Amino acid sequence: MTPAGIFWICVAGLFVAFILFLVIRTLLVRVKPLPKEEFTPEDISEKQLGERLSEAVKIPTVTVLDGKGSYEPFLLFHAFLEKTYPNIFKSAEKTLINGYSLILKIDGSDKNLLPACFLSHQDVVPAPKEGWETEPFGGEIIDGFVYGRGSLDMKGHLIALMEGLEKILERKGKPVRSIYLCFGHDEEITGKDGARMIVEHLYAQGVRMEYVVDEGGAIMDGGLLGVNGKIALIGTCEKGYVDYVLTATKDGGHASSPKKRSSVDAIAEAVYDLSHLPMKSYWSKPIKETFRTLAPFMKFPYKLLFVNSDVLGPLLRWLLSKVNPVTNSIVRTTFAFTQLQGSSAPNVIPVTSKAVVNVRINIGQTQKEVKEYIQKVVGKEITVTELNPGFDPTPVSETKGEIYEIILKSVAEVFDGYIPAPYPFIAASDAKHYYKICDKVYRFGPIEMGVDDQNRIHADNERCNIASATRGAQFFARLIENTCY
Ligand SMILES: [Zn+2]
């Protein structure tokens, strides 16, 4: 045999050994069942929950932006909650922050235990009537769904929480661990006057929380990730957020005698370059953990790929970048151009042209690194400035330890057969403010929804499935029972 022949036989042998190694590792992975106890889910009336959610949706608590809008509905919403949930309000100390954000504190009997804290936001995004098949604030109940703005984001969650807590207080009385409910009024515009100030207030009082649960994280079909069955994603952290303004300044003038290169050309080139040169994908620690948790439940060949993600990383990340925008956004910092500005007249070449890029920063990177990268790509003729202070990615909450284990147990008990997994939340929530008073901050919305319903959030015909919200209420009741009694 020629030396070349021997070489190729060796290469083929190594390749076969490598594949065998991957397959054996995959076959050795076993599914560990989650601990759970037999229990009777809280008796929560679907009909009543649906009617109450409908009432909540009818109160148009649209976020007040730059003084535009009305705070009146927030006060009506507080009155509605107080009337509807007497057990909670009877047991709770109520504090208003900035007039419209609400803290309800229910004292536990053991002062040595740090409190549990449940978040929700009262505000909703606007809902112009066009495109809606129902009144956006009509709260109509049709075929088991409550329709209306905020029914999913996030009054469904808020009402499920209130229903669950009301019931458990009625059945079991005073908890051992104190419970805080913190409902901000401006989450949709970063929570600067609501959640942020709630946290400042609690921090000033020296309050620390044992754990926090907010929206984000969801129950969904695992098919997208090759998982057989439903997955319950628990957000342990959240990507950073910042908007940058790119500005080009050049000579302007009359459009009848254009110069070679205007500020419009420069800004267009910058937009093109940045759109075509994304930041490198990489595994953040929490996304590695997501896949490590889900891999045993995947079908072939996903299982082989994800079990061996440490050796097949680049290939996998490339695949995730291509599959769809969501899987792309979990492995990298993303850039989305949202606003462009040239001159105000069709025949005027502008002196300055601007583009706004909305940036979501992957866990492990910082605003500083991202800005440096953008500046390098767009070059010196473009200035890059922050439109707002932005947020770096949050710390990552632990996925070991008693509280996380109890959250998993509660999921396993209420959502039998579903697969809980930690993951980095790719959007933004009020929860990011709470790291100042807590290091176990989780995001989990226990209301199951299909892709169709997910797509209605912040869009037309938003609706919440009443049966799913009822199960969500049972989850909150069980989690509170498991951690506070
Ligand atoms: Zn929300």
Structure description:
This protein is of the alpha+beta class and 485 residues long. Helices cover 39% and strands 20% of the residues. The chain has a 6-stranded mixed sheet. Strands 12-14-10-15 form a 4-stranded antiparallel sheet, with helices on one face. The chain has a 3-stranded antiparallel sheet with strand order 4-5-18. α2 (46-58) crosses α15, α5 crosses α15 and α13 (402-414) packs antiparallel against α15 (466-484). The chain is globular and about 80 Å long. It starts with a helix and ends with a helix. The mean pLDDT is 94. The protein binds zinc ion. Zinc ion is lined by residues 121, 153-154, 187, 215.
Q: Tally the structural domains.
A: 2
For the largest beta-sheet, the strand count, sense and barrel status come to: 6 strands, mixed
Tell me the number of helical segments per DSSP (H or I, 4 or more residues long).
15
Fraction of residues in β-strands? 15-25%
Ligand catalogue = zinc ion
Shape: globular
Reported CATH architecture of the largest domain:
3-Layer(aba) Sandwich
Short synopsis of the structure:
With 485 residues, this protein is of the alpha+beta class. The protein has helices at 3-28, 46-58, 72-84, 86-91, 151-172, 195-204, 263-276, 285-294, 302-307, 309-323, 325-329, 367-378, 402-414, 451-454, 466-484, and strands at 92-97, 101-106, 116-121, 141-142, 145-147, 179-184, 211-214, 219-221, 230-238, 240-249, 253-254, 334-341, 348-349, 352-361, 382-386, 419-425, 441-443, 463-465.
